[in-house]
Amino acid sequence: MGAPKKSGGRVSEDPDELVRVPLQAILLADSFTTKFRPITLQRPKVLLPLVNVPMINYTLTWLESAGVEEVFVFCCSHSKQVRNYLEKSEWLSQPNFTVTTIESQNSVSAGDALRLIYERNVIHGDFVLISGDTVSNMSLTQALLEHKERKKKDNNAVMTMVIKWSKCNPAIHQSRLGTDELFMAIDPNTKQLLYYEDKVDHSKGTLHLDKSLLADNPSLALHHDKQDCYIDICSPEVLSLFTDNFDYQHLRRHFVKGLLVDDIMGYKIFVHEIHSDYAARIDNFRSYDTVSKDIIHRWTYPLVPDIMSFQNTATKLERQGIYRASEISQSQTAVVGPCTVIGCGTKIGNNTKISNSVIGEGCKIGSNVLIEGCYIWDNITVEDGCKLQHAIVCDGVTIKSRAVLQPGVILSFKVVVGQEFVVPQYSQVSLLQRPVEEDSDEELEYADSPSAITNKVEESDPEIVSQVSETHCSPDSELGTGGVGHIWSTYEGGHEEEWRHSVAPIPADKILEARKTLEDNLELTLDSILPPSGELKPNSIESDEDNEDSKDDSDYFEKEVEATFLRAVQENIQVDHLILEVNSLKLSYNKLTADCAGAVFYSMMKCALDTPHSSADSLMQNVKGVFTKWKKALTSYLHGDDEQIEVILKFEEMCLESTKEFAPLFTTILHHLYEEDVIGEDAIFSWEDEKKGADETDKVFVKHAQNFLTWLKEAPEEDEDD
Amino acid sequence: MHVTHLYAKTFQRNIFPKHPTRTNRHCTNSLGSIGEKTQTAENQIQWSFGSILKILSNLNISSLAKHSIETQTLKTIDVVILVLSLTKMPNVQILVNDFVNQLRKRKIEGSQATGQQTAELLRSVISQQRVPHTNQATTLINAVRAVGEQLISANPVELAVGNIVRRVLHIIREEDLSLATAAIAGLGLSAASDDEDDVERDDHHGLSAAAVAAAARSTLRLPSLQTLLEDTSDPAAIPHTSSSGGESEGKSRSVEKGSRGRKLKHDVIEAVNELIQDISTCYEQIAEQAVEHIHQNEVILTLGSSKTVLEFLYAAKEKKRSFKVFVAEGAPRYQGHLLAKELAARGSQTTLITDSAVFAMISRVNMVIVGAHAVMANGGVIAPIGLNMVALAAQRHAVPFVVLVGSHKLCPLYPHNPEVLLNELRSPSELLDFGEFSDCLDYASGAGSIHVVNPTFDYVPPKLVSLFITDTGGHNPSYMYRLIADYYSADDLVVKRRPITGS
C-alpha cells in the first residue's frame, strides 16, 4: 500500500491534472462499412436520425458531458455533409468543447483514418476513440483513472476497452444488437484482455484457445456475454502503432487481435466494464432498432427524446412512453400506442393506429393506416389504408394508398411506393441503382471475414430460396403504379443473413430452427466428448481420425518396406543398409519394431514367392535362399517374443489371404525358421496359447503344425537326455 | 478572512463586490458613494486589498490600476471594479449557456443547489445588463425573463429554477416601486416621468405622492397577515423582506436622475444577494425550530435523504433531545442508507427499514418528518418517490406528517396546470441490472420485453400534510398560497415572454 499512499497524497492534484491536460477524442464519422446501404449512399451514417436526432449528436453530447474538451471528427464519405451539419449546429461554438473536422477522401478504413490523424500530430495525450454512431451515458472518470493508473505502472498498457454485460441469444449466436457472439478471455484480477474473437465458427461448436494463454495466466475468465461498446481509451502510442503496422485496417480484427497475438512488443489491452451506465454502437439495422428502443425506454437517460430535442421543439413524455412534440394534429379516432415518438408538425388521420414506432417531423399520415415498429423519418406522406410493419422509411418518401410494407423493408430517400403495391420483406428500395462494382475498399471490412458464418439452417431453407427468386422476379425499377425507385436485388450470401440484421424482429420459426439445430449439435457434441471441457474435444476427434489413418498408414508402410526390400534384392544392397532404410521408414511412419519385423518378413516371403518356382519344393528352396541371404535384416527386429509372435501371426495371415501358396508349407517353413533361430520356441508356444481360445477357423494352422509342436515339446527332454 | 474570501469570490464572478451578509452592506454602500465611509467599512476594504490585487494580477490588469488600489483611493477602486466588470461583459451569455447545459444534462441535482446557482446566474445577468435612463425596471425584467425562460425549459422538472426566476422578477418590481415611492416622497415631480413605463402600476401613481409612499409596499402584494403586522410595528426594520436596505439609500441618493438606473440595479443585486443568502442558510433557520417539534423519546420516521431533515434532526439532537429515527431506505436510489449512516455517525439511534416496511412500523412512530422537492400553491407536495405511501400510512394511523421546505421550494403554480411537469422518468438501470435482464430486453427475438418505469417524484395531496416548516416558521397547507403571494407577484407566473417584448 506504499505506492498508492504516495499517490494518495497527490490525489487532490490529480483531478486538476486531468482537467489541465485537455482530454481529446477522435470521433470516426464513417463506419467504413456498407451495412446501412442504400441509405448511406445519400447521407452519411452519423447523420441518420436516431429517435429524430442525428446519431452524431448523441456521441458529441456524451463526449461533452464526459469531460472531453477537444474532439476531432474524422469524416470520409460525404464529408461535406458532415461538415455542413456541424457548422450549422451549435457544436462548433461551445465554450469548453472544441470540435475540429478532419477530412479525407481516400481513407478506406479506421486504420487509414488513425494514420492520417497521427500525421497531423494533433493528439498529445490519452484520447477517447469512438465511432460517430455510439450512444452512451457512461461516466468516463473511473475508466480514465484506471487507464492512467495502469499506464503509470506499466507503459505497455496502451488501451482500455469499455465492455458491458449483455446476454447473447444462444440459439442464433447473436447479441441483441445484431452483432455476432463475441468471445473474450479476460484476466479477472488485472482485467487484461487476453483473447478476442467475434467471428467464431459455430458449426463446429468449438473454440480454440492458445495453450500459452492457459500456461501464462494464473486465472482467466472466458466470457461470451459481454458486449463490446466500441469506446476505447487509448494512449498516444496507439496511433503510432497503426502507423508502424500499415496493414492494420480494422480496429478490432486487426489492431486488437494483432496486439493480443504479438507478444514481442508486449502491448497490453485492458477492459473496463460498465454496469449501470449504457453504451452501445449502432452497427446494423438491428442495432438501430434496439438502440432506438433503449432510448425510448430511457436506458440512455439523460439522452432521451424529451431532453435531447430541447433545441428545436419541446417534446413531452406522456404515459406509456409516448413522446409527443409540439404542434401535432391528431385525429380523435387515431390511436397512438405505447413506446412511440412523434415529431413536431406531424398530422395523423382517422382510425390510424401507431405503436412502437418513431415518426419524424412534418409527416402526413392518412386514415386507416397501421404503423407498427417503424422508423419514419421527416416529411413523409403515408396515404390512406397503408400498412407499415417494421420498416425504415427515409426522408421524403411517399407511400400511396393501400400499399403494404412487409417487415424489414428499407425505403431510401424520396422513394415513391405505388398504390396497393406490396413491398416484399427485407427488400431495400432506393432511387439509385445498386453500385455495380462493389467497391472493394468499402467491402474491406467483410472481405476477409470467414464465410463460415453462414448458418447451415438457412442454406437448406426452401422458403428463403423462394423469396430470393420472388425478389428477383419483381420489377426492378417499378414499385407499382406511380412508384419511383429500384428494389435492390439481394446478392448471394447477403440474403440469408438478412433477417439477422434487419429492423424486423427475428421470425419465430428462425429461432425455433436455430434452437433445434443447436440442440442437435449439443447432442452430437455430447456424444463425441467425454470430458466436459471444450478444449479437449478436438483432440478426441483427432485420435479417432488417427485410428482410421493408421490403417492406411500400415498399408503404405508395408508397401514401402516391400519396395525397399525388392530394390535391395535387385541392386544387391548390403543388409546393414537395408536395415538403415527400414529404420528410417519405421521412424517416418511412427511404427513399432514388431511392425517392421512383420513387414520385413512379408517382403522376404513375397520375394521368395516372386522368384520363379515350379513346385512346393522349389518354393521352399527359394524361401531358404532368401532367408540365408537376408536373415540378418529380419533378426535385427526380433528382439523379443512379441516381435516373433508378430512374425508368426503375419505368416499365418499371409497363408490365409494373400499368398496361399505357402499354406501347405506352413509347418516346414516354421520349422526352418526355428532351426535358423529366427523364431524361438517360447514364441511358438505363446502363439499356440494365444490360439487356444480362438475359433476353429483360426486354429487351422495350429493343427497343421501340431506335429512340429509336439516334437518341439519333446525336444528339450531329448536335450536333457543327451 | 471571511470577508476577504467573499470579496475574492464576488470578483471572480465579475460582478460588483457585494457582501451577502447584512453587516457588510455598509461597506458596499461606501464603495458606491464616496461620502459615506464608516470605520468598519474602511477596515474591511483594506483587509480585502490583498485578494483584489491577486485577482488583478491574474487578470493582467494594468499596473496603473494596481497602483491606484495600493493608494487606496476608494474612487479608483470603484473604477477598477467597473473595468473588471466591463472586460468580462460577454461572459454572461456563456455563463447562461453553460448553466442551461448543465441543467439539461441533469448535472445539477437538488433544488437547493439549483436554486442557489440560478440566483447567482441571474445576479450576474442583472449586473451586466446595461440599463438605459428610462425603463430600467422593464429592461431588467425582460433580461431576467429571457434568461429565465431558457433556464426553465432546460429542466422543466426542477421547479426551483422557475421559483428563483420569479422571485428575482418580484424583487426587481419591488425595488423599483420602493425607489419610485421614495423619489415621489423626495421629489414629487420627477417621479411621474420616470415611471411611465411601468404600466401595471400606473394607477398607483395617480394617487397623491404621500399616500403612495406610505401604501406602496403594502399594495404591491396581497395584504398578508405577516406584512400587516410588520407594517404596523416597525416598517423600517423588517428582518426578511428584501427592500429594507434600499430605503435608507434611497434617501441619500434619490436626487440625481442618471444614477437612478445604477441605483436600481444596485438595490436589486443587494436583494438577490440576500436571496442567495436565504437559500444557503435555510437549513439553519428550519433547524432552529427543531426543538419545538421533536419531543423527548419520540420516534421519527423519514424516507430517503434530505439535507434539511438531517440538519433538523441533528439540531434537536444537539439540544439534548433523545429520540429514535426510523429511516426508510428510499428505493431505487437508496439515499436513505446515506442518511442512516450520517445520523448514526452523529450519534442518533437510527433504524433502517425498507420502504415496504413503512406500514408495519408506522404504528410506533410519533411523527413523520420528510423533505420535499417542491411545494405547489395548493399545498400539495412534490416529493421523492414513495412519500405518498408514507403519507397515506401516516394518515391511517393519525401520525403527523411534517414537510420541511426552504422558501425557494415554494412554487406559485398549481399542480393541475398542464405547463407544470411534475415528474421525471429516470434510467431503468437504477432498478435493475441491464446485463441480468438483457435477454428480456431483446426486442428482436420477441422474448417478451420488460418496460421498466422509474419515476423520480410522488405527488402528496395537501390533505395528507399536517404541517409545513419553512424558514419563516410552521404553516398549515391551506396557508401556503398566502405565503406564496408574499414571495411572487402575479404578473410573473408565466415567465414565457410575450411575443411583443421581443420587438
UniProtKB/TrEMBL annotation, chain A:
Residues 528-555 are annotated as: Disordered. GO terms for molecular function: guanyl-nucleotide exchange factor activity; translation initiation factor activity; translation initiation factor binding. It comes from Clitoria ternatea (Butterfly pea). The keyword Transmembrane helix does not apply. Residues 542-552 have a biased composition (Acidic residues). Coiled coil: none annotated. Residues 547-722 form the W2 domain. It holds the Pfam family W2. InterPro entries: ARM-type_fold (IPR016024), eIF-2B_epsilon_N (IPR035543), eIF2B_epsilon (IPR051956), LbH_EIF2B3/5 (IPR056764), NTP_transferase_dom (IPR005835), Nucleotide-diphossugar_trans (IPR029044), Trimer_LpxA-like_sf (IPR011004), W2_domain (IPR003307). Component of the translation initiation factor 2B (eIF2B) complex which is a heterodecamer of two sets of five different subunits: alpha, beta, gamma, delta and epsilon. Subunits alpha, beta and delta comprise a regulatory subcomplex and subunits epsilon and gamma comprise a catalytic subcomplex. Within the complex, the hexameric regulatory complex resides at the center, with the two heterodimeric catalytic subcomplexes bound on opposite sides. Belongs to the eIF-2B gamma/epsilon subunits family. Keywords: Cytoplasm, Initiation factor, Protein biosynthesis. CDD domains: eIF-2B_epsilon_N, LbH_eIF2B_epsilon, W2_eIF2B_epsilon. It is found in: Cytoplasm, Cytosol. GO terms for cellular component: cytosol; eukaryotic translation initiation factor 2B complex. This is Translation initiation factor eIF2B subunit epsilon. The keyword Oxidoreductase does not apply.
Automatic annotation (TrEMBL), chain B:
GO terms for molecular function: guanyl-nucleotide exchange factor activity; translation initiation factor activity. One of its GO terms (cellular component) is cytosol. Gene3D superfamilies: Translation initiation factor eif-2b, domain 2. It comes from the Eukaryota. Keywords: Cytoplasm, Initiation factor, Protein biosynthesis. Residues 231-262 are annotated as: Disordered. Its main location: cytoplasm. It is found in: Cytoplasm, Cytosol. The keyword Thylakoid does not apply. SUPFAM superfamilies: NagB/RpiA/CoA transferase-like (SSF100950). Residues 248-259 have a biased composition (Basic and acidic residues). Component of the translation initiation factor 2B (eIF2B) complex which is a heterodecamer of two sets of five different subunits: alpha, beta, gamma, delta and epsilon. Subunits alpha, beta and delta comprise a regulatory subcomplex and subunits epsilon and gamma comprise a catalytic subcomplex. Within the complex, the hexameric regulatory complex resides at the center, with the two heterodimeric catalytic subcomplexes bound on opposite sides. Belongs to the eIF-2B alpha/beta/delta subunits family. This is Translation initiation factor eIF2B subunit beta. It comes from Clitoria ternatea (Butterfly pea).
